[in-house]
Amino acid sequence: MSQNDPAPRVSASGVTAGGKVWLVGAGPGDPDLLTLRAARLIMRAEVIVHDALVDPRILALVSPSARLVSAAKRRSRHTMPQHAINALLVAEARAGREVVRLKGGDPFIFGRGGEEVEACREAGVAVEVVPGITAAMGAAAAAQLPLTHRDAASVVSFVAGQCKGLTEQNWAGLAGAGRTLVIYMGVANADAIARKLIADGLAPDTPLAVVENAARPEMRVLRAHLAALSQVIASKGVQGPAIIVIGAITARGENDLRMLALEMAQ
Ligand code: SAH
């Protein structure tokens, strides 16, 4: 049995020795983008605690006998505070169960996976992390936007567009010539983000792409210049999870990308 098998470990006396928590990345949507390890754990876990962003097609893989708990953590609509999620993971593992904490994308990219790992470690509960395809990588592949390119970008940065004190964040140097900036959770603050980047010296006509619902059937790729970011988001009614990719790589093969965007939007 490999160390990843979620079968309960039973001591010689027949008493369950203790469960384990797996922090599993569910990727951006398409179940085909799960790692084999993630798929195996999802199918076999006894308890699954998942976020709102986990695709329903992935939740369909869960064993019918498993307990499925939605932590439904979405901006300003927290149904379960982080400390309660941590406590649930610890309690279920202490009860001897094998727990999968299932997160959209990768657990360690804006997923609060670090806090959950720390909570488990502090409680003396075994914990393991299974990486997932983060939204930036899923979107890059699906929309054919190479985040680095020998001729156009040798630096790529991931930033959170929704965070405390956005205006105090120092993004200088993350966008501009030869660089790609990927903004997660930026749709609601798009106007402030564009203003901030322009105030920091980025040209208003810097090209960008908004990739909504990457790796899902309803994916859309919207293209704009920085100055028109919030306008395109409003006019196209971006509702689903989306990342904003800023930089010259989004302008390469522009016609092909337009075609792709149109196909995807249909
Ligand atoms: N851990 C996740 C990120 C969680 S933060 C990951 O690694 O992808 C939530 C943000 O991720 C959303 O606001 C959005 O910006 C982005 N996101 C998640 N899934 C997405 C998807 N399918 N398409 C585009 N963006 C997505």
Task: Describe what this molecule looks like in 3D.
It is built from 8 helices and 12 strands. By secondary structure, it is of the alpha/beta class. The chain has 2 domains: 124 residues, Tetrapyrrole methylase, N-terminal domain (Cobalt-precorrin-4 Transmethylase, domain 1, 3-Layer(aba) Sandwich); 130 residues, Methyltransferase, Cobalt-precorrin-4 Transmethylase, Domain 2 (2-Layer Sandwich). The strands form 3 sheets. It has a 5-stranded parallel β-sheet, sandwiched between helices. α3 packs across α4. The protein is elongated. The N terminus is likely disordered. The site of S-adenosyl-L-homocysteine has 23 residues, from α5 and β12.
Which features does this protein show?
single chain, Cobalt-precorrin-4 Transmethylase, domain 1, five-stranded parallel β-sheet, alpha/beta, five-stranded mixed β-sheet, 22% strand, binds S-adenosyl-L-homocysteine, disordered N terminus, 28% helix, Methyltransferase, Cobalt-precorrin-4 Transmethylase, Domain 2, 266 residues
